[in-house]
Amino acid sequence: MGNADFECPHRVAIPPTKPFFESLSSNLKETFFPDDPFKQFKNQPLGPQILLWLKYFIPIFEWAPHYTLDFFKSDLVSGVTIASLAVPQGISYASLASIPPIIGLYSSFIPPLIYAMLGSSKDVAVGTVAVASLLMAAIMGKEVSPVEHPKQYLQLVFTATFFAGVFQASLGFLRLGLIVDFLSHATIVGFMGGAATVVCLQQLKGILGLVHFTHETDIVSVITSVSSQVHQWRWESIVLGCCFLFFLLLTRYLSKKKPIFFWINALAPLTSVILGSLLVYFTHAEKHGVQVIGHLKKGLNPPSATDLAFGSPHLLIAIKTGIIVGIIGLAEGVAVGRSFAAFKNYHTDGNKEMIAFGIMNIVGSCTSCYLTSGPFSRSAVNFNAGCKTAVSNIVMSIAVMITLLFLTPFFHYTPLVVLASIIITAMIGLINYEEVIHLWKLDKFDFVVCLGAYIGVVFGSVEMGLIIAVALSVLRVLLMIARPRTLVLGNIPNSTIYRSIDQYPTAEHVPGILILQLEAPIYFANSNYLRERLSRWITDEEERIKSSGETSLQYIILDLSGVSSIDSSGISMLKEIKKSIERKGFKLVLANPKSEVIKKLNKSNFIEAIGHEWIYLTVGEAVTACNFVLQTWKPSPVAAAELDSAVNSV
Amino acid sequence: MGNADFECPHRVAIPPTKPFFESLSSNLKETFFPDDPFKQFKNQPLGPQILLWLKYFIPIFEWAPHYTLDFFKSDLVSGVTIASLAVPQGISYASLASIPPIIGLYSSFIPPLIYAMLGSSKDVAVGTVAVASLLMAAIMGKEVSPVEHPKQYLQLVFTATFFAGVFQASLGFLRLGLIVDFLSHATIVGFMGGAATVVCLQQLKGILGLVHFTHETDIVSVITSVSSQVHQWRWESIVLGCCFLFFLLLTRYLSKKKPIFFWINALAPLTSVILGSLLVYFTHAEKHGVQVIGHLKKGLNPPSATDLAFGSPHLLIAIKTGIIVGIIGLAEGVAVGRSFAAFKNYHTDGNKEMIAFGIMNIVGSCTSCYLTSGPFSRSAVNFNAGCKTAVSNIVMSIAVMITLLFLTPFFHYTPLVVLASIIITAMIGLINYEEVIHLWKLDKFDFVVCLGAYIGVVFGSVEMGLIIAVALSVLRVLLMIARPRTLVLGNIPNSTIYRSIDQYPTAEHVPGILILQLEAPIYFANSNYLRERLSRWITDEEERIKSSGETSLQYIILDLSGVSSIDSSGISMLKEIKKSIERKGFKLVLANPKSEVIKKLNKSNFIEAIGHEWIYLTVGEAVTACNFVLQTWKPSPVAAAELDSAVNSV
């Protein structure tokens, strides 16, 4: 009875249930090893396999044999260029982190060497990062004052760096790179912009020549602190600062206009440092309110493994800081590596990058370095200078080593105000207002997330901005899951295609049949909503038909193409929907259930309840089958009930 | 050039962009008013509209005019039946919450009256709930001891009830019913089972006749506490307890076997109380270690508005407790109402139910009642006794009122051990092991969530179980979003249908074309994964073709049917994928982008970049178009590059 005479052209396949552990292992593999990294090791004898593993974990073995002199020439140029940036930036960012400037130089010596061996990116230039430096000072400075207890504070910084490294490496080993994915593009744009604003505000201390400054980072505290000390502002410092700022911004502007000026821009920071130092040396400006770096110890990194304060009462705060700056460092480093790789059409492995950054920071924390990553500004210079491989990092490292061994006395007279100008110039590039406008045009919610992150960082704290942005992003995903769209489909004229009547205004209703499409997996989080929404669609359609006098409704076709999976709440929902549809005298028909869905429908006996002949491969076939019944046999209400019971007893 | 000669039968429509505020308001409406509750008020004159609003907010005006004597007969019987349950349960659950037993009776008088007016369910029987009672004692008992400061503790209980009500009502007014949806079916099964186990363990105090007992709820503490007091166990209490437990479980078992015994089961608790009280009265067992309720004050609820301790130093803990028990109460009450409504084929409004429960608890907190909801056990008895409307709640309320006015002295000799037996019998029904087995069979992850909730509650605390279960559920949703499936499609023989070759083993590869289907919205959380996974599919396909010697790959068709939306990270991902596909010399073709997706592709100029003629309505049409080109014009590598640049310059 019913559509028994109708021959269905295609059957919906119910894939066989895989054994539990097989399906578990394939799920785990798909979740944590989507790139199938160990494929190449299969079916290899032991010897080559060991070599492959070595190459896999230490990429330098992979590319070093193919290294050529031409490569070296390019790498030498770019290495020297980034070294000229690394020295002033290292010193500046160390002061952001409230640690001795020399630590910043140390941090540009050992970590790049480690990364050159382990990293899979050819363009990342390793170095300290402004945002993470500021974060360390902001979080840990509240616990231990860097002014009153400099030694204890420094130990905490090393400890936090150690934990950041452990955390980064574990994420990589555990293949949890997906955590970084939850920092969306919009989050990063807003967060970076906010952090750059905050870092610029902190530079007011250097530019204005102030001695005392607030420990808070939010804009209100900083402005209050600055404006309450108007009488301590030093004009010498301000004039010097503005000159250098103008010089640096001009070179930056010029290099953007004409690529020929690229070198001027790349060398501008070092030039500023040299010019500034000479100026102070000859005018003795350090006696007139222009603060200078002062004595820098000669010599390479002293070991600091014994400084790791695992027994400290502040251990917890060090771990927390480590995790936060570790994530921030990764987000920047991995994203930078990925972007340049996409540009040059090679591939970086996110999980391997995490391991490389992690080991780099663990080793760094034992050799007097603090947190390093792959900062965007330095990597961009590296890329523009034409680097070919990670050898440019080795060149930079050697240049910094030479500086440490012989040139530190030259930095004695470097004025802090020059460093402040260098930081401000670097930071202004991170405030990406064009991207914000683009976000507003493209996706309003992404814009809100971005703005939330920015406002959170600037008016609250760096952590608050991050929390706001991540919470908003996750909330959006959850809301999308909780409120999936349901569409009414209509027939595209002269075809067997069925599409949303919202999107295709020409699509036509099929008389007597309501076709609904679900656009998301059916979960506990949306099953109640979907039940209410579907019954509202049906009620609306009944009313529409009543008022227009069309053929009365007989069939509800649910197109499950968009339903990739279903859980136990979803199955219950479908059962209830079926019951309520049948109570109204209609028949529920399913179209195109996917493999996960049909498996679970089968296990829960839903297929038997609805009848296997009421499940079709496409909406088109379902409509044809329904029309077959509608035209050959119009059911009266009583007959419809019979039909139901007949179908139910199948 | 390219497919310009091929006439595309159908075009993908790009819906016009809606103005910002229009699309915002329609999104908000879809999110918070999916049931469109105010539809009936449109186009009505003021008078009827006010009446409709009154009926909407106070449903008793809706159904009272149609109330008949037949209804009343049924409601009277069911009301008296649930009252016989309400009295012993009220007293028992109050002792679970560590408050005077009389409060339990008060709580079955006022709240049912309120609910009868405001509630939209016909079957919910209002009363105190075991889990929420235990939770209150567990959370607040740690702050203020109910033994040492009974008055202060009671004030805290009223305050928490007040905040629970405010929270519930606000959720309803703010249309945030979706929060309750995040407690999945599996979470509730595990949580209820765990809570029932914990409540049963707590009854060991009553059964064993112990005076001292641990304040912790976890199984380890309870077993330790019980086993360390073996010498305080009272055999009189144990014997009495076992007898009544046997009696109650027997009637429960019988009523399940034969519906005729339903009344015996429903009246068993009251019978036990009467029998137990008589026994103690005549044997003076209260002097031999059988603890009794003792004096219960006669009279109706005293006002308690002045007891709300808003100035208390423990206010925060009261608010926290209120929110937790408020959610638990709602989850049970709303789900119970919904289930019975589905059974009788009428509709309850989740948001209105929340407002009803909320106002009921706010009023309750001012009239010496503590938290009430719609407990499953009592509502099931109500339903089985044949209730027709909420009038059964009014009948119960009047019966409880008579008890309060005249019958309280009769409970003086009621032994606590009988109450413990009543609680245990009620709780055993909540441990739904059959459902757990069903979950294991249907969905392994739901089983894990359920088990997590159970173990968390039994071995940790009630809150911990809830947190574990919700965290696992949300984690699952996020993982699903972060790792969506991608499918390779093949042609179902003798059709233009394309389906996953995993699900349909007969589906055939189309030579020279790789068809990939995405099954989820493209978000920041999965865009990196999707990029890697898609390029792996392409590489795998290239290798497969190389080894099998088929026609080499020319086209990659991305079926976007399952992509309901896309954000800015997703757009960047598509752009990168396009670049990398074109660099390999292939052409990217899109099929069936949904309205949200095509709008954003249009805004971001992706359509221009790919060429509007490379976007098709169905996979079938895309394949036809590609085949048209493949057969009429085989591109060489150079020609392919030309093709690309030609397409790009469109």
TrEMBL record, chains A, B:
Subcellular location: Membrane
Coarse class of the protein's main subcellular location: membrane
Transmembrane segments: 99-118, 124-141, 153-176, 237-254, 260-282, 315-335, 355-373, 385-407, 413-433, 445-475
Molecular-function annotations in GO: secondary active sulfate transmembrane transporter activity
GO cellular component: membrane
PROSITE patterns, per the entry: SLC26A, STAS
Recorded topology in the membrane: Multi-pass membrane protein
Record keywords, A-Z: Membrane, Transmembrane, Transmembrane helix, Transport
Start and end residues of each STAS domain: 503-626
PANTHER family the record matches: SULFATE TRANSPORTER (PTHR11814)
Listed name of the protein: Sulfate transporter 3.1-like
Organism whose genome encodes this protein: Cucurbita moschata
Lineage: Eukaryota, Viridiplantae, Streptophyta, Embryophyta, Tracheophyta
